[in-house]
Each structure stands twice: as C-alpha cells, then as structure tokens.
Write a structure and sequence with these properties.
The chain is α/β, with parallel strands linked by helices. The chain has a domain of 198 residues: Rossmann fold. The protein contains 9 helices and 6 strands. The strands form 2 sheets. It has a 4-stranded parallel sheet with strand order 3-4-5-6, sandwiched between helices. Strands 1-2 form a two-stranded parallel sheet. Bound molecules: NADP nicotinamide-adenine-dinucleotide phosphate.
C-alpha cells in the first residue's frame, strides 16, 4: 500500500493483472486502491487483510484468498518494516526476523498449491508461476544467528534488518532448488528508495540519506517484470538490483546454511519442507 509495493501495484494494474493487495491497514489499502483506479481506470484491484507478524492472520488471509481464487500466477513478498525499538510477532519472534522473513516464508508455503495450479497449466510443470522476494543490498551486512530469532540483547536495528533481508535472499535461493517445475523464485534489491520505511529514522539521518535515494517507480517496474514479464519466463534463482554493484554475499550463497535456515523455518512455521528438484536454470 505504499512505497515500492504501491509502485509495483500500479505497474501490474497498468499491464492488466488482477492485483491483490494484502495489507495490514485497510485504510491505507483502500487509499492505495483508489490511487490505482485513478491512474488506471477499470483496473482490477482486490483488497485483503494480512498481517505478516501473526501466523493466524497469514492462515486466515490464505483461506480468504483461496475462497476467491483457485490459482495464483505470481506472489511478490514485498512487505518489510524497520522498527527502531525491539518488537515481537504474535508468536514471539523478533519483529524483523518474524515479520520480514518468517511470515513471508509461511505465506509462500501456504500459497504453494495455488501456484502449483498455474504451474501445471498446459501439462504438469509447463506453466509459469513466479515468486519474487524483496531483499536488500543490506543483506551483505547480515549474519544468520538462529539464537536471535526470538530476540536480541542488545537490540540493534541494522543487524536485525540485515539478517531478515539475508533470510529473504537465502530463502529465494533455497526455493529455486526445491520448487517443482513451472514455479520459479527470484530476488531483488530495489535500490535505496525514498519511502515510508525510513519513517522511524531520526530526521537528520533521513535528511543526509535523502539526496541518494531514488523514487519507487524503477524498482516497482522491475518487480512487475520479474513477476509477469514474458522476458523473465523460466528464469530461476536470480538476484537483481536497480543499483550497482550487485553483490551477493558469500553467506547468501552458503547452501549448507540455506538448508539449516530452511529446515528450522519449516519447524517454526509448522510447514512441510519442499524436497530438492535438482538442476535449475539460473538467471543472469
Ligand atoms: N526503501 C528502500 O530503500 C529499500 C531498500 C532495500 C530493500 N527494501 C525493501 O523493499 C520492501 C518495500 O519497502 P518500501 O521501501 O516500499 O517501504 P514501505 O513503503 O514502508 O512499504 C512496506 C510495506 O510493508 C508493509 N508491512 C510492514 N510490516 C507488515 C506486516 N507485519 N504485515 C503486513 N504488511 C506489513 C507496510 O505496511 P504499513 O503501511 O501498514 O506499514 C508497507 O505497506 C521491503 O521489504 C524493504 O525491506 C527497501
């Protein structure tokens, strides 16, 4: 409903997609839909309630979505927050780990059957369903420390954020190996983008950063391209960035750690692990 997510919603609506906004604040979601309809009259925009910091809310959202749709073409895991003070999800996870990483992890697994329907269109695994993850260049500063999942002492915002964004990227890489044919997983860094995500930063700090931030339009277009662009069909396991250099940290590429995180996340989220499908076609 704001920033990069709103921008990609505009672009997807412009291209004729049915856009489903899954948001925690229905007032903001309604305002976002109105803005999209103003710019793209006749756009198909549906609103759903989704709070990624609650497993129950995630299950409820998937149930509501499945009542209206029997398939899903593309899932964009965009939501993210950067709280300056330590907060916790409903299940007691530190909010950045739980809301930015583990919530989307659960959501993705629960939506898998609907992505599978799209994947099997035209024959088993011949279709084109996609998952896109909003990671960040900040993943390079991250370290996976499973002991911090339920809280940090002391809490420092940047390591917690960086870990959550590293988690997004490692999940994307792990998924790329595990997803059945016809479903792909890609990740992106949107660039440094002027958006409400920085609302809790001290004003002087934001003022220093602001000249270096870009608008949400280019990353919005990139996310839409990864989600539905015909030029991206079949690409899997890529990491894209609006700004360069586009560096993937060695931690993000560590397959053993990806597996450890994946398995533990399945236990936390109470979902069955996907098994490896083998060879993948890697994106450039
Ligand atoms: N902006 C940047 O420079 C930058 C750089 C690298 C990566 N990113 C990533 O890009 C993504 C989008 O960020 P943005 O810059 O567009 O920020 P934004 O405008 O603040 O958008 C974040 C969105 O996530 C939603 N959200 C946060 N926590 C949620 C929860 N628990 N459940 C449901 N929705 C939740 C927010 O909802 P509310 O409006 O209700 O808060 C908001 O709609 C994030 O994943 C962020 O980490 C951003």
């Amino acid at each position: 409903n704001s920033g990069i997510g709103l921008s990609m919603a505009h672009e997807l609506a412009r291209q004729g997609a049915i856009v489903c906004l899954a948001c925690r604040d229905q007032g903001k979601a309604t305002a976002a839909r109105n803005e999209i309809l103003q710019r793209t009259p006749g756009a198909q925009v549906e609103l759903y309630k989704l709070d990624l910091s609650s497993f129950a809310a995630i299950h409820a959202f998937v149930q509501a979505f499945a009542q209206r749709h029997d398939r899903l073409d593309a899932l964009i895991n965009n939501a993210g927050a950067v709280p300056m003070r330590q907060q916790f999800t409903q299940e007691g996870f530190e909010l950045q780990f739980g809301g930015n990483y583990l919530g989307p992890f659960l959501l993705t697994h629960l939506l898998m059957p609907l992505l599978q329907v799209t994947a099997d269109e035209g024959g088993i695994g011949r279709g084109d369903a996609r998952i896109v993850h909003l990671s960040s260049i900040a993943h390079n500063l991250g370290r996976i420390d499973l002991d911090t999942a339920k809280g940090r002492k002391p809490y420092r915002v940047l390591p917690a954020y960086a870990q959550s964004k590293l988690g997004n990227l490692m999940f994307s890489h792990a998924l790329a190996r595990k997803l059945p044919a016809g479903i792909t997983s890609q990740a992106m860094h949107p660039g440094g983008v002027a958006s409400p995500i920085y609302r809790e930063l001290p004003r002087w700090q934001y003022a220093v950063m602001r000249p270096f931030l870009i608008g949400p339009e280019r990353p919005g277009k990139l996310a839409a391209e990864l989600a539905i662009g015909s030029n991206r069909r079949g690409e899997n396991g890529g990491y894209f960035s609006i700004q360069h250099p586009r560096i993937v940290s060695s931690a993000a590429r560590d397959q053993a750690m990806q597996e450890t995180l994946y398995k533990q996340s399945c236990l936390w989220a109470e979902v069955s692990p996907l098994s490896a499908r083998g060879t993948i076609r890697r994106a450039a």
